[in-house]
Amino acid sequence: MSFAAFTRPGRFHRGNLHTHSNLSDGRLEPGEVCRRYAAMGYDFICLSDHFLPEYGFPISDTRPFRTNRFTTLLGAEVHTGAISHGDPWHILAVGLPLDFTPTAASETGPELAERCAAAGAFVAIVHPEWYGLREEEAATITSAHAIEVYNHTSAQNTARGGGAYMLDALLCRGMSLNAIATDDAHFLVADAEDFDSFGGWVMVKAEANEPDALLDALKSGAFYASQGPEIHDMRLEGTTLDVQCSAAVAVIALGRGSRSVEMIGPAQTAAHLDLTRFAGDWCRLVIIDRAGKLAWSNPFQVADAS
Ligand SMILES: [Zn+2]
Ligand SMILES: [Zn+2]
Q1: What CATH number has the domain bearing residue 211?
Q2: What is the pLDDT of residues 14-30, one digit of tens each?
Q3: How far apart are CA 36 and CA 48, in angstroms?
Q4: 163 C-alpha to center of ligand 2: Å?
Q5: Phi then psi for 237, rounded to 5 degrees?
Q6: Which listed ligand is nearest to 76 at the C-alpha?
Q7: Model confidence, pTM
Q8: What confidence score (pLDDT) does residue 190 get?
Q9: Is residue 31 within 8 Å of 22, Cβ to Cβ?
């Protein structure tokens, strides 16, 4: 099988899909948030302010901050109702129209997610660990394209930044979901301004650094998530996976339950993994570098062993 992230034409574009400005509870103006990401070498961001009545249901119009090498996707973090612990739903929608209709009080989380997807958005379940989202609740968001396996702000502020456990549980239920890493930056710490930024991102393969091309690539799964390491190539022939990556101390294939195959070494830039034990089921790749930073492939299906 082929992986969209590595077979599509184009190049990788580095982006942060989840970040806030002072249009909701972030500290910086939208233009300043964009300027900082562009200065750090990002190709794009989505400013995803909280789509709530107290902020006037903002969809940040970041179009004026696009340049010839930096672009923006329009979107929001939408909320409604309450999950079992009492917190409202948090759902990321990347690629919303500026006139997206405000959330109705009666709208459920799954209904709101579905409306975002119907409006053209790439929809993600966010920071499941941070707010104790339960598996059976996450499983109701059937229109989600992805789940945050890493949320940098949740990791930095509360040591609850993970989401891979939830991804695996949902894959075991037969859901089809990809893996994103995001910052969810708010820039709230004035004397440590990058405390919650530049820690988790996606690398999206697209022919142009244009919103439509990036959104199409996101929905097609043509990306991987990272805190630092790079995945240069993945090829699956039968049950053999060949990986090329930046220097890694561990190259790991993970599947249902405790199933894993790993190659450990001081600075591996290529790995050859036998995925026979995942035959007929899902699998995903994780790379760890010497600094302990991770990169995550999207999940994929391994063919039945013949
Ligand atoms: Zn949130
Ligand atoms: Zn957020």
Answers
A1: 3.20.20.140
A2: 999 999 999 999 999 99
A3: 16
A4: 14
A5: -120, 110
A6: 2
A7: 0.97
A8: 79
A9: no
**132 and 190 part of one domain:** yes
Please give the distance of CA 101 from its chain centroid, rounded to a whole number: 24
Structure tokens at 153: 């702000």
Which residues does residue 179 pair with via DSSP β-bridges, in sequence order? Answer: 147
**Any domain includes 160:** yes
Quick one: 208 and 256 in the same domain?
no
Give the residue ranges of DSSP H helices in the chain.
4-7, 30-39, 109-118, 135-138, 152-158, 164-172, 211-219
Are residues 32 and 99 located together in one domain of the fold?
yes
- Expressed in angstroms, the distance from the first to the final Cα of the chain is 15
Quote the ligand 1 centre to 198 CA distance (angstroms): 17
Q: Which of 236, 254, 235, 239 is nearest to 306 (CA)?
A: 239
CA angle 26, 122, 97 (to 5 degrees): 70
Domain that includes residue 84, residue range = 4-224
92 CA from centroid of ligand 1 (Å): 8
94 and 132 fall within a common domain: yes
CB 268 within 8 A of CB 251: yes
Residues with CB under 5 A from ligand 2 (ion): 77, 184
- Domain boundary residue, one of 208, 224, 240: 224
What's the domain count of the chain? Answer: 2
Instruction: Tell me the pLDDT tens digit for each residue of 219-229.
Output: 999 999 999 99
The rounded mean pLDDT for the chain is 96
Query: What is the whole-number distance in angstroms between the Cα of residue 18 and the centre of ligand 2?
Result: 6
Nearest to 206 by CA among 222, 221, 219: 222
Residue 195 structure tokens: 């405390």
Of 189, 224, 259, the position where a domain reaches its end is: 224
Residues 274 and 214 in one domain: no
In one-letter notation, the amino acid at residue 114 is: E
Q: What is the pLDDT of residue 150?
A: 98
